[in-house]
Amino acid sequence: MLALGQTRTALHLCALRANFRACNLGQRAHSGPTSRGVARHPPHRSITHHSSKRVSPTLIADASRMSAQGSDVPDIVSAQWLKDRLADVKVLDASWYLPVHKRDAVEEFKASRLPGAQFFDLDAISDTSVDLPHMLPNEAAFAAAADALCINPDDTIVVYDRLGAFSSPRAWWTWHVFGHKRVAVLDGGLPAWVEAGGELESTPVSDSVLTAPGAAAAAAQGPDAGVRPDSRYPAHLDLSQVASWRDVLAAVEAGTTGNLVDARPAGRWRGEAPEVRPGLASGHIPGSKNLPWDAVQNGGRFKPAEQLRAAFQGAGADLGRPLTLSCGSGTTACVLLLAARRAAPGARATVYDGSWSEWGGLPGVPVAKGAA
User: Fold this and answer.
1) Roughly how many angstroms between the first and final C-alpha of the chain, as a whole number?
2) N or C: which end of the chain has fewer CB within 10 A?
């Protein structure tokens, strides 16, 4: 973490391209940890819209343009696509691991990364007011992180991870939810880049550079926070893409969870295998279907559209109707979202942000076991 006081600091370090240059953006100072625990009985979490009275007219115009413009950037891009455009995109390493992986994403980033890549910390750039892993941050926090990353509204972003496409879809969805259209996932991630002959960068990266986006996001947390007037990024949270536990509970009670698809492994979904996070119930949301996230990939790359359509159909999901996607912590649910978009362009879906980390710790909610 950065050592931060109670006043604004004049400088946020920002990693850009092969060197890491400074952005003189000015962010509110902060101190405190950004790591998060796992909820046992999490409270209801609502996402608050903040007043636009503190937002400059320029930001409002930028946000309107982001919302109105389409995107010529595919959701999923190949290593060759990125190699051909590397000088014109911002690259983010969104690697994240479960405890069972026994790997350290930050240390691996320090050792090597795609040229010019910056680290997008899913845990640090999140809502730190709840005891759940990497929940969506508020608008002010995300705008502050984007500023620290020197990301502008019109930038093309490519996100990757080191397992192929495991955690990078979560970063892709996060940017989409906050209005950024020009963002893609690198199919196959860092391994595919290396396989295609792409070079890696190993220049030293300071801890202050790595933690600046998370520290900026943490400084912008709080019920009275708003997007700073001098922010260069107009973050506007689209709640139509997000499902809450109350939404899911209402669907369970109405018997309309037939198009809720869970990306966890089959054993965990059936309640036969323990959860990776201690203290959570075993099983699944009643009425949900199971399509393990790795069933839509082959060697870390997404399967062709025809095979993906067959996978969703085999799981009992209807791509012609709105989907609700869930998993352990809202990460691999986004893998299914990308797969649905490839299988059926324009497919409508929401991601249950809290997923089983939230549902499995809520007292009194229904939990089903077995294949039904």
Assistant:
1) 46
2) C
